[in-house]
Amino acid sequence: MMRGGGNREMRRMMDKMGLDMNELSNVQEVIIKTDKKEIIIAKPSVTEMKAKDNSIFTVTADSYEERELEVPIFSEEDIQLVSQQAGVDEEKAKNALEEAEGDLARAILLLTTG
Predict the structure, then answer these.
(1) Model pLDDT for residues 63-76, shown as the tens digit of each residue
(2) Domain count across the chain
(3) Class of residue 111 by CB neighbours under 10 A (exposed 0-12, middle 13-18, buried 19+)
(4) Burial code of 56-79, b = ≥16 C-beta within 10 A, e = fewer?
(5) Per the domain annotation, does 40 fall within a domain?
(6) What is the pLDDT of residue 69?
(7) Are 55 and 24 members of one domain?
(8) Over the stretch 43-102, which tens digit does the pLDDT of each residue have?
(9) Does residue 36 lie in a domain region?
(10) Sheet of 20-24, strand order
(11) Contacts of 43 (CB under 8 A, 6+ apart)
(12) Long-range CB pairs of 23-28, under 8 A, 24+ apart, other chains included
């Protein structure tokens, strides 16, 4: 149990373990993205704990906002198929699939019938 000089003892312990802890100043926003949502944290307190080969970030905030993301209704295989069939790169195929709302045949037609 740490008493009195707990902060100093914690620092010494972290130094012995090869950890360096720093508060990041003036952090405006932290965004965590998953495949289905975004978590936006405005004006958080962020601490970085550095070890030899990696860093651990601790984010503390009073509030955050969660946003659901539009999940594409087509797969990587769909993109590759449209790309091959229409003779275009994958980015164009993806854009056509988005415009065609995931309809493979319609996406290919959009790309091949100019």
Answers:
(1) 999 999 877 778 89
(2) 2
(3) buried
(4) eeeeeeeeeeeeeeeeeebeeebb
(5) yes
(6) 84
(7) yes
(8) 999 999 898 889 999 999 999 999 998 777 788 999 999 999 999 999 999 999 989 888
(9) yes
(10) 20-24, 45-50, 55-60
(11) 27, 28, 29, 61
(12) 23/47, 24/48
Q: State the Cα–Cα distance between residues 42 and 62, nearest whole angstrom.
A: 9
Which of 104, 99, 74 minimizes the C-alpha distance to 86?
A: 104
CATH number at residue 29: 2.20.70.30
Q: Where are the alpha helices (DSSP H) in the chain?
A: 6-16, 76-86, 90-99, 104-112
| 63 and 44 in a common domain | yes
Encoding tokens for residue 36? 């289905």
| Residue 39 belongs to domain spanning | 7-68
pTM of this structure: 0.54
Of 52, 68, 84, the last residue of a domain is 68
- With respect to residue 1, please indicate whether it lies within any of the assigned structural domains: no
